[in-house]
Amino acid sequence: MTMHDSAPLQMKTSSHSCPVCGYAKLHESPRSSSGGGSFEICPSCGFQFGVSDDDDGISYEEWREDWIDGGMEWTSKGIEQPRAWDAKAALATVIKAAKKRSK
Ligand SMILES: [Zn+2]
Question: What pLDDT shows up at residue 7?
Fold first, then answer.
């Protein structure tokens, strides 16, 4: 079995973080500037932008609470959990950002 690497030429310098759990290496912005979801599934918390929110009507906050209740487990089977992944630290950054926004 070979895992195909994503083409390095496609790599962008900007990174996108998950607004639910704080995972910082999403390939696309969860929401485009026009408001559509990316349909990317966060490998950490499993939220799918444009589906979990738009189709299922689940807010980031609700999903986050469920994910925390479930032990903040890495959900992706296809993407390996980064060795340095610290769910609690990532979560702290996202909660901080959310607090700033709601001010
Ligand atoms: Zn996430």
Answer: 43
Cα-to-centroid distance, 17 and ligand 1 (Å)? 8
User: In angstroms, what is the span from residue 41 Cα to ligand 1's centroid?
Assistant: 8
Q: Report the SS3 class of residue 48.
A: strand
Helix, strand, coil % in the chain, rounded to nearest 5? 30, 5, 65
Task: Give 76 Cα–ligand 1 centroid separation in angstroms.
Answer: 10
pLDDT higher than threshold 50 for residue 76: yes
- Cα(14) to centroid of ligand 1, in Å? 17
Task: For 56-75, write each residue's pLDDT tens digit.
Answer: 999 999 999 999 999 999 99
Q: Residue range 86-95: average pLDDT?
A: 94
82 or 10: whose pLDDT is higher? 82
Spatial neighbors of 1 by CB under 8 A, at least 6 apart, are none
Cα dihedral sign, 51-52-58-62: negative
